[in-house]
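Input record, target 12 of the design panel.
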């Protein structure tokens, strides 16, 4: 392969050769778009940002102050595994021994260290197409050969995966967002969860079950995790969508021997997650009644916003736009039945004063040209309605 370099201007006259790993990551189209849409006149349904008015700023500010006043050790280096009481909190919620839990810098870091631990360059990793952009980036960085499998309203098509496996594909990892998928909003059916776990046991791959949205369910009973069907599952958890994302606190639940390897990998990457942030988040999460009150606030808030978006889409776009309304999470994914190219439409939508993410941004292999993702988490019901009205104008 030809050596690629940064332009001379960026390197004071002498080109800087880049490693192939760095060349494998594309810029996230969503993060690029967020720069463009950061205009007060644009109603953005593009970013997947949680509702900031739900962040427990007062409780966190009190927690930081109390912890610092009581113990300067909260500013010290600490163990790679993470703050034990926070690990215990996660272990209890997942019904596992604490030794299996490692605190990470968000679930994104959880995926990075799992990928580093399990992927040989060129190894196959299966994921849904369309897929979560952060996962596509992290897996590519680790050298994975991404092998996309289609998905539908019941999530990843596990039968299609089974056919690939029968034909000899041997992935190291199958990555799946089973609850309220980003970008599709789909939830993996119980049958598919059990079947996927069975395939993991039979063919020896590891399932990475990334679950940032499972707690944000406002309708219907939650489904058993894939981890409840097999020991070959690594769970990625996070407080980003239930507390706040900016402190970057997540966790990994891994089978025993793998958990020890992940600790070593994380040690090499960043020594440990912020001591102070872990303690503050633990203090807030375990304050009496906090979790119940927080979820009781988040679920109706997102449910109302989702309903407003769904109503606006049906009223303003009618049969022209096909989508399934989710029972939780932050996203609606849909497609135009006519041959609208959502990438080409975006500049017109921005002119009208709204933004979405074109389906192509989530493509592993496919093009998802007629699809788009809308987030209902950040905007008010009125803004959601107005945003869709502007989308309808852009179409005219
Ligand atoms: N996985 C999925 C599916 C996500 O949507 C996100 C957030 N956009 C993440 C992981 C990253 O979450 P965290 O803030 O915990 O790194």
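The sequence produced for target 12 reads:
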């Amino acid at each position: 392969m030809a050596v690629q370099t940064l332009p001379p201007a960026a390197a004071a006259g002498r080109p800087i050769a880049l490693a192939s790993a760095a060349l494998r990551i594309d810029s996230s189209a969503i993060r690029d778009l967020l720069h463009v849409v950061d205009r007060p006149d644009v109603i953005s349904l593009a970013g997947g940002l949680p509702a900031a008015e739900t962040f427990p700023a007062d409780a966190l500010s009190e927690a930081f102050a109390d912890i610092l006043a009581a113990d300067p050790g909260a500013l010290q280096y600490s163990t790679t595994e993470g703050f034990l009481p926070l690990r215990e909190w996660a272990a209890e919620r997942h019904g596992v021994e604490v030794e299996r839990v490692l605190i990470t810098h968000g679930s994104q870091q959880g995926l990075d260290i799992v990928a580093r631990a399990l992927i040989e360059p060129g190894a196959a990793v299966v994921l849904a197409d369309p897929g979560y952009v952060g996962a596509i980036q992290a897996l590519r960085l680790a050298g994975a050969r991404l092998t996309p499998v289609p998905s539908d309203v019941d999530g990843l098509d596990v039968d299609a995966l089974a056919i690939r496996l029968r034909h000899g594909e041997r992935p190291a990892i199958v990555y799946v967002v089973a609850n309220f998928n980003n970008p599709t909003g789909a939830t993996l059916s119980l049958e598919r969860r059990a079947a996927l776990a069975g395939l993991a046991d039979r063919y020896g791959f590891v399932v990475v079950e990334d679950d940032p949205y499972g707690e944000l369910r406002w309708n219907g009973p939650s489904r058993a995790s894939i981890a409840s069907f097999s020991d070959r599952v690594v769970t990625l958890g996070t407080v980003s969508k239930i507390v706040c994302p900016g402190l970057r606190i997540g966790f990994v639940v891994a089978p025993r021997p793998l958990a020890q390897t992940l600790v070593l990998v994380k040690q090499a990457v960043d020594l440990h997650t912020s001591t102070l942030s872990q303690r503050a988040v633990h203090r807030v999460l375990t304050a009496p009644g906090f979790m119940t009150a927080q979820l009781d606030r988040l679920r109706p808030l997102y449910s109302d916003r989702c309903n407003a978006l769904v109503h606006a889409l049906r009223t303003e776009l009618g049969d022209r736009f096909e989508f399934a309304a989710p029972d939780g999470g932050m996203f609606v994914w849909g497609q135009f039945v006519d041959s609208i190219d959502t990438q080409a439409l975006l500049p017109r939508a921005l002119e009208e004063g709204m933004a979405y993410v074109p389906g192509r941004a989530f493509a592993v292999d496919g093009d998802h040209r007629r699809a788009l993702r809308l987030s209902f988490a950040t905007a008010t019901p009125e803004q959601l309605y107005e945003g869709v009205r502007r989308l309808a104008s852009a179409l005219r």
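The chain has a mean pLDDT of 95.
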